[in-house]
Amino acid sequence: MNRGALDGVRVLDLSRVLAGPWAGQMLADLGADVVKVERPRKGDDTRAWGPPWLANQDGEPTGESAYYLCANRNKRSVTVDLSSPEGQDVIRRLAMESDVVIENFKVGGLVQYGLDYESLKAANPRLVYCSITGFGQTGPYAARPGYDFLVQGMGGLMSITGQPDGAEGSGPIKVGVAVTDVMTGLYATVAILAALAHREKSGEGQHIDLALLDVQIAYLANQASNFLVGNAVPQRMGNAHPNIVPYQDFPTADGYMIIAVGNDFQFAKLCQVLGHAAWAEDVRFVTNAQRVANREALVALIREATVKRTTDEWIAAMESVGVPCGPINTLDRVFADEHVRHREMQVGVPHPVAGMVPLVANPIRMSGSPVAYRSSPPTLGQHTDEVLQDWLQLTTADLHGLRDRKAI
């Protein structure tokens, strides 16, 4: 069976919650052998972040939270007590057999255990060591704990998300998913792959310092560039776009739809569909720059037109002439959508307790080394014996001894 592009790469995942586990899952999806280290009896914090819980075959809750399931497939779970000297030695030995370590402890938190980068590098100079924190390894905020919601506020995202001042429901709003955690996981994945490529040429590993706040600022993209170039502070605009018009939601006879016009040709087609071809020749709206300058007038005109037909009717009409548009779907409609189903964005993976667990698929499509769904998110400590025998060649007696002394 094709084991993926990263077959043979060993990853020791000491992280918990979302950003680190997301990176670990991405590497695991690409074929790496990812070992997730968890606390005995409790495990990753997110195991308790429910409901909802995965149900077993009798419909009873398994204790596996949906939150935990979203970021931990294709991994093996090992339980080790880091407060135990013997447990620390187990982690150290596992790190010696690893290509990558991912951790999201507080800055300096692993020094006391001898599991920080400098300590592990001395014994394994080829190690790629990725540290994920709220604010980075250096700087005045380095010691602070970091959380996605907090960083969405501090990093400016909430200042541009939500209805504008004076509008109904105005005020800053966080994004509806922990997007900074997810983006940090993706940046971590890119950095780890780059560090592995560098190691192939240099023979040396390196330390990766990733901060949620840095990532949050980096993915502000055009909004940050608008500020740096235009020297004007972006404001909340609801669903409108600061640089393109019309590019937002519009009311219909039975709800709302999105119109996303990206150029003047598409705008002309939109005007034809709306029954107002003359708008495309109006001096206020001929170019995108003019439409941005006259945003309020144009949006008001379009709103008056779109309420006359249903969402489905408008979408059919606009798609027929190449105007980008679409519905605002709830998640039940997302996973029922024929295109989403064709793309197989929902997968079922065998689970040792539930029989089968439904998961969101990885969106990466690779022709030569495709993503494989080898295993479900592991139960707590499911692979402790297997991994310690596989990576460290421990005997059954060794395992019994460690377990008796509560190191694993």
TrEMBL record:
GO molecular function terms noted in the UniProt entry: CoA-transferase activity
Q: What is its EC number?
A: 2.8.3.19
Which SUPFAM superfamilies does the record cross-reference, listed alphabetically? CoA-transferase family III (CaiB/BaiF) (SSF89796)
* Keyword Secreted set for record: no
Recorded hits in PANTHER family, A to Z, give: SUCCINATE--HYDROXYMETHYLGLUTARATE COA-TRANSFERASE
Q: Which organism is it from?
A: Cupriavidus yeoncheonensis
Q: What name goes with this protein? A: Acetyl-CoA:oxalate CoA-transferase
Q: Which UniProt keywords apply?
A: Transferase
Which InterPro entries does this entry report, sorted A to Z?
A: CoA-transferase_III_domain, CoA-Trfase_fam_III, CoA-Trfase_III_dom3_sf, CoA-Trfase_III_dom_1_sf
**Top-level taxon in the UniProt lineage:** Bacteria
